[in-house]
């Protein structure tokens, strides 16, 4: 029996440029659409938007290519993360950015696409503040549970509602009522959640290949001298990247220890000249993020060849059954 293939894409705001380029190179080497290769695609935040782009019919009935998603970031990032002279004062009391620009871009990009158009099972993470529980959008549950068929724009908005950056999404339908924020608060690297979901979807499978694509490893550090005096205000500016990075690194260790699971982590070990901030959309940073990704691909060609070999036989199963 062929192995089950799982793709996972991290969160990281504008640094989504990096996985878009890496996935574009991977798709070209495979000479197949990614949804034709993977039995499950998962994403968090910016990775959730990429997963929805490559995994649904949001592009006039077709999926977007990773190269087209790259253009989404380069062309629209400066609009989504637009700052002005009031931004530093505003973010002390309110979300740093209005969601209006993000919602407009998502509406233009996905239009009225529904989640039921998923071309392979999709797992998109969010977190519900009202129940204080993780909330996963699962396309493979729609047939059994039609209320899971949310508009793709709503799912993309929910998974990318990073605390302090954007307000939560209030998602309601009938008796259902959620206040959803970025899934990065608990699974910025959703690879472990994706593996668990794949095990549930394909219970008879014993071999899994998990390809996890990151948005670049932050190289900044916080010294004791810096942090020892921080209170609410000091931590408010740092806590989001701290918990997102720590969760991602824990997942790397966990998946690398599981028997029967071949785990590939595609993560630029440093951002070079690019900035760590997930909302730095300065023109030079957009260029530097692209250069970081291109250099990573060039210096990890052998690893990409190995991944393509592990993925060469495509999906390990037919589309999963209903209601799992």
Question: What is this structure's SSE topology?
Answer:
Elements (H helix, E strand, L loop, with lengths): L3 E6 L7 H14 L9 E5 L1 H10 L10 H15 L6 H4 L9 H11 L11 E7 L4 E6 L13 H8 L9 E5 L2 E7 L1 H4 L3 H11 L6 E6 L10 H4 L4 H5 L2 H18 L4 E6 L16 H17 L1 H11 L13
Parallel strand pairs: 1-2, 1-7, 2-3, 7-8
Antiparallel strand pairs: 3-4, 3-6, 5-6
Helix pairs in contact: 1-3, 1-12, 2-6, 3-5, 5-6
Mean pLDDT: 90
Taking all Cα atoms into account, the compactness measure Rg is 19 Å
Distance between the first and last residues' Cα? 20 Å
Poorly predicted runs = 320-324
The largest sheet, given as strand count, sense and whether it forms a barrel, is: 8 strands, mixed
Oligomer: single chain
Helix content: 40-55%
Number of helices: 13
Characterize the structure shown:
With 324 residues, this protein is an alpha/beta fold. Helix content is 41%, strand content 15%. The protein has 13 helices and eight strands. It has helices at residues 17-30, 46-55, 66-80, 87-90, 100-110, 152-159, 184-187, 191-201, 224-227, 232-236, 239-256, 283-299, 301-311, and strands at 4-9, 40-44, 122-128, 133-138, 169-173, 176-182, 208-213, 261-266. Strands 1, 2, 3, 4, 5, 6, 7 and 8 form an eight-stranded mixed beta sheet that branches. Helix 1 links the parallel strand 1 (4-9) and strand 2. It is globular and about 55 Å long. 45% of the residues are buried. The model is unreliable at 320-324 (pLDDT under 50).
């Amino acid at each position: 029996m062929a192995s089950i293939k799982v793709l996972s894409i991290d969160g990281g705001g504008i640094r989504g440029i990096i996985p878009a380029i890496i996935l574009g190179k991977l798709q070209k080497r495979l000479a197949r659409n990614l949804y034709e290769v993977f039995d499950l695609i998962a994403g968090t935040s910016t990775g959730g938007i990429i997963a929805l782009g490559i995994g649904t019919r949001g592009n006039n009935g077709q999926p977007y290519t990773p190269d087209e998603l790259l253009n989404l970031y380069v062309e629209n990032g400066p609009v989504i993360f637009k700052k002005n002279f009031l931004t530093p004062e505003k973010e002390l009391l309110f979300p740093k950015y209005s969601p209006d620009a993000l919602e407009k871009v998502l509406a233009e990009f996905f239009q009225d696409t529904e989640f039921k158009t998923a071309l392979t099972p999709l797992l998109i993470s969010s977190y519900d503040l009202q129940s204080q529980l993780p909330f996963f959008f699962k396309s493979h549950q729609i047939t059994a549970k039609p209320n899971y068929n949310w508009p793709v724009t709503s799912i993309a908005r929910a998974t990318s509602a990073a605390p302090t950056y954007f307000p939560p999404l209030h998602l309601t339908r009938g008796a259902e009522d959620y206040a959803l924020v970025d899934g990065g608060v608990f699974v910025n690297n959703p690879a472990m959640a994706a593996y668990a979901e794949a095990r549930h979807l394909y219970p008879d499978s014993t071999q899994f290949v998990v390809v996890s694509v990151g948005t670049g490893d932050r190289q900044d550090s916080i010294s004791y001298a810096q942090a020892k005096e921080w209170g609410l205000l000091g931590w408010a500016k740092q806590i989001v990247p701290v918990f997102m990075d720590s969760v991602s690194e824990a997942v790397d260790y966990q998946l690398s220890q599981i028997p029967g699971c071949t785990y590939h982590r595609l993560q630029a070990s440093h951002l070079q000249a690019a900035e760590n901030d997930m909302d730095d959309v300065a023109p030079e940073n957009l260029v530097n993020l692209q250069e970081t990704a291109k250099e990573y691909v060039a210096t990890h060609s052998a690893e990409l060849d190995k991944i393509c070999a592990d993925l060469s036989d495509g999906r390990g199963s037919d589309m999963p059954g209903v209601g799992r």
